[in-house]
Amino acid sequence: MVKICCIGAGYVGGPTMAMIAYKCPDIQVVVVDISVPRINAWNSDRLPIFEPGLDEVVKSCRNTNLFFSSDVESHIADSDIIFVSVNTPTKTRGLGAGKAADLTYWESAARMIADVAKSDKIVVEKSTVPVKTAEAIEKILNHNSRDGVNFQILSNPEFLAEGTAIDDLADPDRVLIGGRQTPEGQKAVAALKGVYAKWVPEDRIITTNLWSAELSKLAANAILAQRISSINAMSALCEATGANVSEVAYAVGKDTRIGPKFLSASVGFGGSCFQKDILNLVYICECNGLTEVANYWRQVVQINDYQKLRFVNRVVSSMFNTVSGKKILVLGFAFKKDTGDTRETPAIDVCLGLLGDKAKLSIYDPQVSEDQIRRDLTTSKFDWDHPQHLVPSSPTAKSKEMVTVTWDAYEAAKGAHGICIMTEWDEFKSLDYQRIYDGMEKPAFVFDGRNAVNPDELRKIGFIVYSIGKPLDAWMKDLPAAPLT
Ligand code: NAI
Question: Are 327 and 233 in the same domain?
Fold first, then answer.
């Protein structure tokens, strides 16, 4: 029986390994992590991440051919193929701080593999890493290995999207495997291809050299994020001219060269990957002397920051230029619907912006705990992607006072001056907005950062409504634009 071990039981390691185990009953898969609480959660009834369909997949093969363990070393020693799916956050200090990928977790995983491996291993980069990381990993492994133990490094970046991870894994657009162009390298590529070929059609399994595979992941995320920043930039122009961004996106997306997906304007992209991977790409370009290319990609992140700031300014300027002491209901905190993941969610910057203007926030998200929200509002930028157990953070008194986290949107709306929709959860579409309106201070505002609700219906109730990129209410049209500071 082939044995697979995956280091890192996170949003990628957990679901991807569960899918391999589910599709390949003849393979034993063990997912290991240094975080004991995370492993305990994977072994419990309440999995550590929320992902539609994940429960069924995990529960159908857990303790049959899928195992979760914190006994990292022994499972590494036992396995033929080792996936490394640890976090690769943005560096917070030193050379490249704020841009370069922090490979501390990756390096320590590689050193551990070298330390405990007594037989040949295929080591698979599942994490998103800078191009040429495989070369560094090879050096670490080969300089620290026992005599006679050989390693083959493969790059097999993950393209799943949170919220649809299980569908993406069951029916991927493509699986990408990069390896060395040597007979041993190609043998390793074939071995990994054999695993995926159990359920993925062969023509969707792409094999390339190592560097193409590593760079393709960064390129894919950069181009996806660029699409969002492009439509978000258009949304600002739509608001200024009276065009409707949904109509523009529809018309543009009908062009088969462009296509309709990923053209929804919003308060900005979030998630653990887009910003981090683009900044990493910017850094790699700079290191290669490609200043213009670096500046081009940096602009994608800058437009994203602009979009969040623009949203905050719109809220404050609409509410008589001050939200001080005003209660604002924040609907949604996760970076998108169908996930509880809050990493780099635009809600953080918007909430911090409103708190900066002394608003009182009441936050509701169906999948995000109070503890997580408080942590997110008090953790410094870029620290969030370091494992939580390594970055202690305690809510400040200020955040305790100014922020309440609620499980009842109707209760939370009582006495609120405004509502900010930060996540497009389906349930927000079917709330009883008349009931909400009745309990609010007047004038009552809705600022829809996701174009999740029908502005015309809300206007009929009496709300003053702002929807990203849509024609503005007369109320907002006449207001001077707040400066973007
Ligand atoms: P995560 O933070 O959810 O999981 C990483 C896990 O690795 C943590 O549980 C951490 O405790 C563990 N870990 C760190 N160092 C370790 C070590 N030395 N030994 C054992 N465990 C260790 O991160 P996530 O979201 O799963 O991302 C992992 C990688 O996959 C990142 O490089 C990310 O960029 C990439 N990726 C993420 C996607 C996503 O949607 N979240 C999609 C595609 C790629």
Answer: yes
Mutate to test the pocket of ligand 1, among 5, 12, 169, 277 (most ligand atoms within 8 A of CB): 12
The answer to whether residue 483 is domain-embedded is no
- Assess if residue 218 is contained within a domain: no
98 annotated as a binding-site residue: no
Catalytic site residue 273?
yes
ipTM of the complex: 0.98
Residue 331 dihedral angles phi and psi, to the nearest 5°: -95, 110
Distance 158 CA to ligand 1 centre (A): 11
- Could you report the per-residue pLDDT of 76-119, keeping only the tens digit for each? 999 999 999 999 999 999 999 999 999 999 999 999 999 999 99
8 lies in which domain range? 2-200
- The verdict on residue 373 lying in a domain is yes
Ligand 1 centroid–CA 14 distance in Å is: 9
Question: Do 258 and 118 fall into the same domain?
Answer: no
The model's pTM is 0.94
SS3 of 320-373: the string is CCCCCCCEEEEECCCCCCCCCCCCCCHHHHHHHHHHHCCCEEEEECCCCCHHHH
Say yes or no: 254 and 154 in one domain. no
